[in-house]
Automatic annotation (TrEMBL):
Domain 3'-5' exonuclease, residue spans: 36-240
SUPFAM superfamilies reported for this sequence: Ribonuclease H-like
One Pfam family matching this protein: DNA_pol_A_exo1
Name of the protein in question: 3'-5' exonuclease domain-containing protein
Biological process per Gene Ontology, one example term: nucleobase-containing compound metabolic process
InterPro entries membership: 3'-5'_exonuclease_dom, RNaseH-like_sf, RNaseH_sf
Molecular function (Gene Ontology), one example: 3'-5' exonuclease activity
Amino acid sequence: MAALIITEEAVPALAAATGGLSLTDDATTAHGNPTPILIDTTAALSKMVGNLEELPTDPPSLYIDLEGVNLSRHGTISILQLHVLPSKQTYLLDVHTLQGQCFSATSRNGRSFKDILESDTIPKVFFDVRNDSDALYHHFKIDLRGIQDLQLMEIATRTFSRRHVNGLSRCIERDASLSTLERIAWKRVKDKGVKLFAPERGGSYEVFNERPLSSDMIDYCAQDVQVLPLLWARYKSNITSTWWQRIQDASKERVKLSQSSTFVGKGQYMALSPSGWASIR
């Protein structure tokens, strides 16, 4: 089922047309999550930020991923995907269109999305935060804090070698506990997206900047971030307090490294676990 994209301004009209039925109950994707909402105006962004205030922190409420063209200080950010666990709502923030306003527009209480991203007291879950942090810091001066890196959490749960990290796709296939039908649907959406943006498959990363976004790209952008809470719950239940402290420290170190002048987000070293972790038993 292809996701229908809904802008924030369209929600009242849609509710009226459906007799007041809520998006959460009726406008849903194939996996039961509300249809992704595109945030491409400052008014919609301000409303979204207002909805993010006073959310639970354990488990974390906010799960984030980014897409872009050469996502780094040398490229651009196109879309920021935000999944909000309590509402199961996924937002696609159109950074390509809004640029700096995506992070500076404020809610009625004066809080911006930048404030949330930089808050130590609001946990945000990323999978391998390094390139995302690199791009956010160097393009928009966002100093990420309160980060829980799922890639590091996965390493901590292992009973085998901790020398190398795993990618998100492998973690989803192995640890997200998807049903057979869910796994087939996930792979189908993934393959459609890759064909559109991967040059080796005949695509172009510029597809992330095409407007309006195609339904295939909407599905691609939304689906992985919606699975992150499943991985967080799976890994967190198997992590000791000692390992949790290591994860918090290493997540901060990854952000710090990504902001340095010497950071390069490509290369074999990116596949290595944090220093010293491989020898811990």
